[in-house]
Write the structure tokens for this entry.
Amino acid sequence: VYFGTFVHSLGQTELEVMSAAVGVDSEGTIVFVEKDAASADEAARKHGWSEYSVTAPLDQATSFFFPGFVDTHIHASQYPNVGLFGKTTLLDWLNTYTFPLEASFKDPAVARSTYSRVIARTLGHGTSTAAYYATVHVEGTSILADLALEAGQRAFIGRCCMDANSPDYYCDESLESAQTATRAVIDHVRKIDPTYEIISPILTPRFAISCSRDLMAWLGKLAAEENLPVQTHISENTLEIETTLKMHPYADSYAGVYDTYGLLTNRSILAHAVHLTDEERDLVAKRGCGVAHCPASNSALTSGETRVKWLLDAGVKVGLGTDVSGGYTPSILHTARQALLVSRHLAMKGEEKHKLSIDEVLYLSSLGGAEVCGLDNKVGNFLVGKKWDAQLIALDGKQSPVDIFDWERGNHENLVAKWLFNGDDRNLTKFWVNGRLVAGTEFS
Ligand code: GUN
Ligand code: FE
């Protein structure tokens, strides 16, 4: 039984702050939420529980539980490059920084040491679910799946498909080899987690530029046949868009290229979506795709400012992505802060309606991300029937870097704002995924 203050999203603009006792069974499923319970014991008694333990923060007035973060777009293999991008933009950044690093994951030892650090780091920042891109390599990508399962992080594992316009030293050698490698990773994930309870494969055409038409068509067919999720990049940078449209003259838009091959589904995660046209946005909404909004990356690589409100207003699902290492931080809390600031830059250009609130960016970080990943029946907030993916945040001033000032004690709305703007991984004292304690400053 978890007892204290719970902060979670019920919808895009509804951030609920409740005092409650939450009962979680041995499978990690929330079985009761008793609002305003006088004590954990009272709530347990009411539900006929006799054997249980109680977890409550030491100082209720400066602590709260928040759902685990969902990172809808992160390149695990690019973590060694965080902070390195110089003055590049997307396409020269890929060639200068990214492909050489990803090529080094041919060595399984590189994969193992990097991926174990990435998982420890993202768990330390409260990421309970991550949609990972790995590299083209089967063994390295399978290692990422093994390590996430072992550490207890929900993960979508994507082997990058890239059989066209890629460097000779880093690519799929042929359509057939790309298919075989993609199959091999799916088989591996099915072997270690047969029901995809924690780890799921995700089909990952890197982006339209790096995939042949045959490969995209095969992936679209596979997604439909096996009901698999898909992730890719879309409309991130103007030169990328021009190049894509030149390569695919039959398509009327970038989104139209993916749609031709059945890659826009209600299980598709489209990263960036900075420069979509109105028609593309409506198509993406109609197909039920989700967008991974990556504000830190879009600012760092000067890609542009994604109009999140404009997407949400059309019914497009939106979550947050760190996009390590286009993005320089593995933290979704930091990314939420960037999402709020980028929305204000859009507002400063004259359109007030673009401004996102604290409640909205925290929705994107949790429930919104869960919707994008098709996991909103399972995670994203604290409702009965969902899994206990939860962060215990402490702003007590001793273990935390946030000076809350005495007069703020017990004002949880203000504590949440202070956490969003000044908090970091030092505020995460305990972190559970699927009911299992996996990280936090008090985890050892
Ligand atoms: N487009 C194709 N590959 C990538 C990548 O690795 N990162 C980003 N941000 N965009 C891409
Ligand atoms: Fe990316």
DSSP finds 14 helices and 17 strands in the chain.
